[in-house]
Design a protein that fits this description.
The protein is mainly α. The protein has one domain: Growth Hormone, Chain: A. 76% of the residues lie in helices and 0% in strands. The protein is built from 20 helices and no strands. The chain is globular and about 60 Å long.
């Protein structure tokens, strides 16, 4: 008999309704659509890192012109930032995430047929275009589908997946480069990038709410049409300044190589195998630092991770400048190189996390286009300053000036983030 005032309409079911089990596709979608491609691209890219200086020497490039191998892909990246941001908002994230590894594969295979140094630089520039499309699209997809208090871990996890893929790449690429030729690692890169297209195509969903709404035929569901001026606030300006300075400081070490391996090859005569072993070593050591950085950003705030890491990068670069100026040993160079890369690992994904916090949901593509343009300008300034310094000042003085400029930029990053950039993590009470 029902008690007075009871609102029960019948006995409770014997077996409470259980949610339907997730399918394989749903359960492993993030891993298959983003993590696995990141690992494949990281593996392929890792194979090419130690052979780039030897490839420059194959074309009889000077130290200053060898820096163009780092500059060329950055120019490609810089050129497509704003168009990519527009496309992300217009056609969605998925299409670009499928196309970008295919372009990466094409770029790598074209390197095999480069008959001149300018031709080689053009193919490397195409690779930079593909890399930028990949980075911006995956960042937009993560921002679409991840809660703010998990973004740091998601973004650093993605970076760690790429680093994991690159663990054996530099070591094997260096050995293969010495035994089979310095271009063979690019064939491996092309094959790995082509494989990355497969899981992206089959498992990557579209995450843009506006694009999905348009496909359903819902009117008034596109982007809000926020003006460019409304996106450029003082808060965003401080973030852009920090992003630029951060990339001036760390641009030469992103990918565990860049101008530092050129310095080692031209100063110490270091070959691809040795450079590959160093690259693999810093990749192994950097993974736990990257993962820990994501935890710190999501628990204690973005600035708590960025400021100490930027200071560490600046100190390592100051040591590298000392190595060049005082003509210290190769052993001290390795210490400085590892130090810098561990600091860069601590910063990995941190500026992207800040940007994803600030980016307006209705115009994420355009916002990421702007901030990646700023980041690309900073990354480009890094090897440009290296090439100009080594062209203007001969020998160790040129190297020391270049690394000193980078060190100053890293230290200024810590100052700008610590003083001018507002913390974006919203802690729950």
């Amino acid at each position: 008999m029902r008690e007075p005032g009871s609102t029960s309409t019948g006995p409770a079911p014997e077996h409470p309704e259980q949610p339907e089990p997730l399918s394989f596709r749903e359960r492993y979608r993030t891993m298959l659509s983003l993590m696995l491609p990141a690992m494949l691209l990281g593996l392929g890219r890792g194979f090419t890192i130690p052979v780039l200086p030897a490839l420059a020497l194959e074309f009889d490039a000077t130290v200053a012109s060898a820096g163009l191998m780092v500059i060329a892909p950055m120019l490609g990246s810089l050129a497509v930032t704003l168009p990519t941001g527009y496309l992300i908002d217009r056609i969605g994230r998925r299409r670009l995430l499928v196309v970008s590894p295919a372009l990466t594969s094409l770029s790598a295979f074209l390197v095999l047929r480069a008959a001149s140094y300018p031709e080689l630089l053009a193919y490397l520039s195409l690779g930079g275009i593909a890399q930028q499309m990949w980075q911006m699209s995956r960042l937009a997809a993560i921002a679409d589908s991840t809660a703010q208090n998990r973004r740091g871990r998601q973004i650093t996890g993605m970076a760690s997946a790429g680093r994991t893929g690159a663990l054996m790449g530099p070591l094997l690429g260096g050995i293969i480069g010495e035994l089979a030729g310095v271009r063979v690692p690019f064939a491996i890169y092309g094959a790995a990038a082509a494989l990355a297209v497969v899981p992206m195509y089959f498992f990557m969903p579209e995450t843009s709410a506006a694009v999905l709404a348009r496909r359903r035929g819902e009117s008034g569901s596109g982007e809000s049409g926020a003006s460019w001026s409304s996106l450029l606030t003082l808060r965003v300006g401080a973030l852009f300044l920090a992003q630029y300075l951060a990339n001036v400081g760390r641009g030469g070490s992103i990918g565990h190589g860049g101008v530092f391996l050129i310095f080692a090859a031209y100063t110490f005569g270091t070959g691809p195998a040795a450079l590959g072993a160093i690259g693999t070593g810093v990749a192994v050591m950097g993974i736990p630092i990257m993962l820990a950085g994501g935890q710190v950003m999501d628990r204690f705030g973005r600035k708590r991770q960025i400021v100490p890491a930027a200071i560490a990068v600046g100190m390592g670069l100051a040591l590298m400048a000392t190595v060049a100026a005082a003509e210290l040993s190769f052993t001290v160079f390795v210490v400085a190189f590892v130090w810098i890369n561990l600091g860069v690992s601590g910063m990995a994904g941190s500026m992207q996390t800040l940007g994803s916090d600030v980016a307006p949901p209705e115009a994420r593509g355009r916002f990421f286009g702007m901030i990646r343009l700023v980041a690309g300008a900073g990354s480009l300034t890094n090897p440009v300053s290296f090439s100009l310094s080594t062209a203007l000042l001969a020998g160790s003085a040129g190297f020391a000036l270049a690394f000193g400029i980078m060190s100053g930029a890293a230290m200024l990053t810590a100052l700008v983030v610590g003083v001018l950039v507002r913390e974006t993590l919203q802690r729950r009470e």
